[in-house]
Amino acid sequence: MIDVRTITADEVPAFREAMMATFGFDDEADPDGATRTRALLAPAQMWAAFDDGTVVATAAAFDLALGLPGGASLPMGRALPAIYAAATAARPGVLRRSETWWRERRFLDAPMMRGGASRRRYVVARRGADDVGYLVYRQRPGSLGGRASGRVELVELIAVDATAEATLWRFACALDLFPIVAWSDAPTDCPVSWLVDDPRRVQRTRIDSLWLRIEDVATALAARHYPSEGVLTLAIDDVIWQLAALGGRGRCTPSTGPAQLRLTRSTLGALYLGGTPASQLARAGLVDGDPAALALADRLFASPIAPWCPEVF
User: What domains are there in the chain, each with its CATH number?
Assistant: First the structure.
């Protein structure tokens, strides 16, 4: 019989060992992993499935906050954290990082995390006395046919404005002997294709990095910013809500009136951060409503900044 429950403090090493094995790592490759896990997660935030006392499956919930359109957040002493906070304040989808998260997830550089590449390198862009951006990267040397084929593997590129962002990209693309620059988690609105001389040499693949499911519809819809005004009635999983947006703020209340749009809770997650218009979701059969209601939803949920989650869990 499988027993699923939260773990105790003494069971953290077994939890960690099972999690490492799932991702193909040996536990001894990260000897301090249990200590880091305890720093990031309380035992009440970790669940395990036990089969006759052995951990066979794991789950955990980090306590983070999610950036919303307009700069609000919902609950979920160094240069880099300050730059990150300033540069991502208005970016939907970004997770707010605690001091522990920075220490244990962003600054820690255990050998098992390198995958055969170098240690993390750090570059800070400055404008006068101000820090305006940073680049974190690794280097992977290589040669092919007597020519350098090294890779610069970006971990993170964060900038407070377009000038700082372009400066950091130019640095990354100009490292001698490393003609290949790769970033596995760039935002969809990354401007690099427009910064280089030959945009055809930039190859992009779109992947999902944030899955969003909204449980408390009223609180979530009231928390974000709305760039337009209007009243919209939505049936979400057949529960009807009225969203009224005025002066950038939203108010969401239960309603008994006819729904202008019908969608599922999963589709609301795609719409909520402003990355996918309701009209596009309607073309895929995921939202049902007339053209006027879809146009209003497009205006209400729009975000001038694309959603992006720069974390890997």
Answer: 2-60 (no CATH), 65-201 (3.40.630.30), 217-301 (3.30.1050.10)
